[in-house]
Amino acid sequence: MPQYSGILNSTQPNRDGGFKSEIYFNPIVDITTWQRPAGTGTTLGDKSKITVAHTWAATKGAFTWQTKIGSVLLTSESVGDEGAKVIVWTAKFKVLGFDAPTLDQMVNMLNDQVVVFLKDANCLVADAYYQLGDDCTPVVASVSSDGKDSLPSSTAQKEFEVTLTSKKLFFYTAALDVTFV
Hints:
Number of strands: 12
Strand order of the largest sheet: 3-12-9-8-1-5
Largest sheet: 6 strands, mixed
Distance between the termini: 42 Å
Structural class: mainly beta
Oligomer: single chain
Strand content: 35-45%
Number of helices: 1
Shape: globular
Order of helices and strands: EEEEEEEHEEEEE
Radius of gyration: 18 Å
């Protein structure tokens, strides 16, 4: 089972940064059959790819939230003791507006068990998502808001900033069910 191989910048895929200005998420209970990385680990990357679509419950699919353009970010950092480190992934995005239905959804996300999908900015690749969390390790959410100022010169809009963290990130290259939304 290989542990390492050469990395050549000139042939490395997905070098261009960015994500589509939408996020997709599901409560854990809406997905009835979870897929796992199918690889045995004989090829590098097998342990991080999900190539078969999850199965959603009838009339369920991923919720779509449009985000402030350019606000979807994905970062990571290693944490833990020497010899036992893991990578923690953090997705941040901003949702414009400030109303009761949006607030209710923000509050719900804080304590519900959810999984999140980010769409790669290269929309020419139909099924290129980054899945944060799974049914065993859902994402952890935090939410803040900014009401902005009301000065006549201000063009700023009210917004929520959502931060999602997870120890799980998968390259999800299967169909994402968003048909009902």
